[in-house]
């Protein structure tokens, strides 16, 4: 039996569907999916099996014009993930086409993609007509020499199986990198924090999209098989604390309940989740917060 294994970097603009595609490929929810841009901060790896091939996906933060330290660290992590991968998949939203952001990514790919297999996946194909898709495909392939082009809908699953089978043939021969039943290499503490952050993002809409972070402070395994998880939600201002608490504490209660239910489903057992809110005005400039997110604080200086 010849086994194969390799790293696959999913890159693209924010909201291109990278997290949705990763979750579809792996068959489980390992990366948070919201309609907010830039919700993926850490390089989350999902592991999928296809025949005798193990595909290790690096779900990178969306590539955009960075303005703050956190933005710069996220973009550095994204390109770092691409540079370390065996195969790169560029995701483009069919209905948005070649934006300024896509132009910048294509320019950078000329350097980062050298010597690597780079595929193009045009996502959300159900949003445009076939003639427009054909024109977009021709334009993109004229600008970069993609090894192969796929038409997909990550949300509905169309074309995803073809992409996964092709990727299985592209990764190098070698032993598997993870146990067969492992779906992600993120510590459970970080996955738990990501789940709570997703629920906050969905609940708060535009009020506090990126000025908060969640850390799992403690994880206690109990004798009855359940787990007690203590988390801290860091915000930048006192006013933010009130928004997260909500009237009579209703917002934090709803967020905690939704996060707990998803954690219970993910872990397959009871979870006791306790969330505290703390004000830390400068958390965006603290190296420790970046480490918790799997980002390099020094990359924010670039």
TrEMBL record:
It comes from Roseovarius litoreus. GO terms for molecular function: GTP binding; GTPase activity; ribosomal small subunit binding; small ribosomal subunit rRNA binding. This is GTPase Era. Residues 123-126 are annotated as: G4. Belongs to the TRAFAC class TrmE-Era-EngA-EngB-Septin-like GTPase superfamily. Era GTPase family. Monomer. GO terms for biological process: ribosomal small subunit assembly. It is found in: Cytoplasm; Cell membrane. An essential GTPase that binds both GDP and GTP, with rapid nucleotide exchange. Plays a role in 16S rRNA processing and 30S ribosomal subunit biogenesis and possibly also in cell cycle regulation and energy metabolism.
């Amino acid at each position: 039996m010849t086994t194969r294994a390799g790293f696959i970097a999913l890159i693209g603009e924010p909201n291109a569907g990278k997290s949705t595609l990763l979750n579809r490929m792996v068959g489980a929810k390992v990366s948070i999916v919201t309609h907010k841009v830039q919700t993926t901060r850490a390089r989350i790896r999902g592991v999928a099996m296809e025949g005798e091939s193990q595909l290790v996906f690096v779900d990178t933060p969306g590539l955009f014009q960075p303005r703050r330290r956190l933005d710069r660290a996220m973009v550095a992590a994204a390109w770092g993930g691409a540079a370390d991968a065996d195969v790169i998949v560029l995701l483009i939203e069919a209905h948005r086409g070649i934006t300024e952001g896509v132009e910048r990514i294509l320019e950078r790919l000329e350097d980062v993609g050298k010597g690597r297999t780079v595929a193009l996946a045009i996502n959300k194909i159900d949003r445009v007509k076939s003639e427009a898709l054909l024109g977009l495909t021709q334009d993109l392939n004229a600008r970069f020499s993609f090894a192969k082009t796929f038409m997909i809908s990550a949300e509905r699953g169309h074309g995803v199986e073809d992409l996964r089978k092709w990727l299985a043939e592209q990764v190098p021969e070698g032993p598997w990198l993870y146990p067969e039943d492992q779906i992600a290499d993120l510590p459970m503490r970080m996955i738990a924090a990501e789940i709570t952050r997703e629920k906050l993002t969905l609940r708060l809409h535009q009020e506090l999209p990126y000025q908060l972070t969640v850390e799992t402070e403690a994880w206690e395994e109990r004798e009855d098989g359940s787990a007690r998880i203590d988390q801290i939600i860091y915000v930048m201002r006192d006013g933010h604390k009130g928004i997260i608490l909500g009237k009579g504490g209703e917002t934090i209660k709803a967020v905690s309940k939704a996060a707990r239910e998803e954690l219970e489903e993910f872990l397959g057992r009871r979870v006791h989740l306790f969330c505290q809110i703390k004000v830390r005005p400068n958390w965006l400039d603290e190296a420790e917060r970046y480490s918790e997110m799997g980002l390099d604080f020094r990359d924010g200086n670039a």
